[in-house]
Amino acid sequence: MAANGSFDEIPILDFNDIHASKAKFLAELRYAIVEVGFLYAKNFGLPKDQIKALTDLLPALFALPEQEKLSIELESSPHFLGYSAVRSEITAGKVDNREQFEFGLSQTEIWKPGRPLYERLIGPNQYPPSLPEAQTIIENYIHSMAERASFFMRLVAEALALPEATFLPFLGLQHRLKIVRYPSAHHASESQGVGPHKDSSGWWTFLLQASPPEVKGLQVLNKSGNWIDVPNIPDTFVINIGQAFEVITHGTCKATTHRVLAGPSERFSVPFFLGVRGDLTKAEAFGSLAQHFKHESGESSEGAQVDSAFLRGKYNTWGESQLRTKIRSHRQAGKRFYPELYEQYMNDS
Ligand SMILES: O=C(O)CCC(=O)C(=O)O
Ligand SMILES: [Fe+2]
């Protein structure tokens, strides 16, 4: 462990160690979430058959005919759920070389006229008609991951010297699972899998790297400005902090910048973004644990340095800030399903 906080590797936590010494496990967890913002989780408790079923599904999912993929495209969903083709996303000013399917918890639409529009982000998934097994595999995985993630949030609270249920009331039903393929890249112009970013769409991210260990790609930026490789270690997940959690902890736990380089082999990955409650307000997010974290981060109060679109933005709830992000990134769907907000959100920055 580097004393100056500039980590040069990502800590590996074995969740079976909790039984041997919970205090030691929590100390290691604390180091990972305060100094690094990333960790590998071994023995995280997801059923192995569910991981295998999902991993085995990926090549077939992406091999579907273009026409079928486009028949379930994200741009045709008011909930921003479905398929996005290669080169349809821009991160840090450059086009990302990846294609993806986005799924949520399987839900019927709950939004009703008069209710906040961000509630419309919740709704049914779009599944490819010719892979009928996909629905069960994906739904089982999302349910298991949501359960393990809330178990993890209890440990995080304990590691931060808080009552174990502290973070549970902030959780929402807006979990998102992205199934991602980075095509092989042979030219520098194709090498950005996804550009440098902090995760903004959830509370925490739980990533399954679904290609063999020799297929590299994910990298994390340390405090000295060096990119650290995060290779796939079989039977682990990579867990990292999202921006909402940085806000709630006043910067004690940081959302660490990361990116993916596309390389000579195609790569599959499956990030799960643990959802935040849509009606969470800025005041609640920043104020709830202020006393505790002021103490945690000392006189210099790192909280003042938290940079978050949610805090900076004009909108008061997490849900509205998320809806704005979605509309701005997926303009076709934004214009079609949210005409009353489209112009405002496009022009308010
Ligand atoms: O594919 C990966 O390994 C990471 C993807 C990622 O960072 C993201 O989608 O936010
Ligand atoms: Fe990310």
Descriptive account of the structure:
An 8-stranded mixed beta sheet has the order 1-2-12-9-14-7-6-3. The chain has a 4-stranded antiparallel beta sheet with strand order 8-13-10-11, with no helix packed on it. A hairpin with a 2-residue loop joins β4 (90-91) and β5 (94-95). α3 crosses α5, α10 packs across α11 and α11 (331-337) packs across α12 (339-346). It has 349 residues and is of the alpha+beta class. The chain has helices spanning 17-20, 22-36, 48-62, 66-71, 134-159, 243-248, 282-287, 290-296, 309-312, 318-329, 331-337, 339-346, and strands spanning 12-14, 38-42, 82-84, 90-91, 94-95, 99-104, 176-182, 192-197, 204-209, 218-221, 227-229, 236-241, 258-261, 267-273. 2-oxoglutaric acid is lined by residues 178, 180, 194, 199, 207, 218, 258, 260, 269, 271.
Q: Please write the CATH class name.
A: Mainly Beta
Kindly report the name of the CATH homologous superfamily. Answer: B-lactam Antibiotic, Isopenicillin N Synthase, Chain
Mean pLDDT: 92
Name the overall outline.
globular
Provide the succession of SSEs. Answer: EHHEHHEEEEHEEEEEEHEEHHHHHH
**Given the helix and strand composition, which structural class is it?**
alpha+beta
DSSP strand content: 15-25%
Number of strands: 14
The CATH architecture would be: Sandwich
Work out the radius of gyration: 20 Å
Low-confidence stretches: 298-304
Spatial order of the strands forming the largest sheet: 1-2-12-9-14-7-6-3
As an assembly, this protein is single chain
Question: What is the count of structural domains?
Answer: 1
Bound molecules: 2-oxoglutaric acid, fe (ii) ion
